Amino acid sequence: MKFDMSNKPLNIFSFSSLTDIVMLLLIFFLLTSQFVIQTGVKIKLPGAKNNEQVAPSRTIVSITDDRRIYLGNEETTVEALAGKISQLFPDLTEKNLIIRADKDANIDIVIKVIDAAKGVGISKFTIETEKKTF
To answer: Which of 59, 79, 86, 90 is 20 to 30 A (C-alpha) from 31?
Structure first.
């Protein structure tokens, strides 16, 4: 039996192992893209048909249905909110405030939060919603 011992370049490349790696990476990125930064405050977000994905931000204000206000995980009042925002973010490079208001929260408290944030220089506001299909 005679074996061919020449060192010729391989003409055919097997894509089966490359396909496995790409499939594993695809599954990994699909699973990890579903994780969203949530604060510890339980809120029922209002539904919207055309909502956009919110970029994670450090400046999140949560408003519960019983008129409690949280900056991150720390409870605060409307009067103290402006001071705490300027204290936590002295340079305010991030000019976007994400508001997570409960769907049963009074609109009056949301307006007061926006007004307090405008007083310290925040110019953009995003009201977070939940994706709903109607």
So the answer is: 59
**Does pTM top 0.85 for this prediction?**
no
**Residue 83 in contact with residue 63, Cβ under 8 Å?**
no
Residue 26's pLDDT is 92
**pLDDT tens digits for 79-95?**
898 888 888 766 666 67
Task: Give the count of domains, the chain.
Answer: 1
Closest CA to 128 of 107, 108, 96, 99: 99
Q: What is the pLDDT, as a whole number, of residue 122?
A: 83
Q: Is the pLDDT of residue 15 over 80?
A: no
- Rounded to 5°, angle at Cα 49 from 44 and 55: 70
- Let me know if residue 97 belongs to a domain: yes
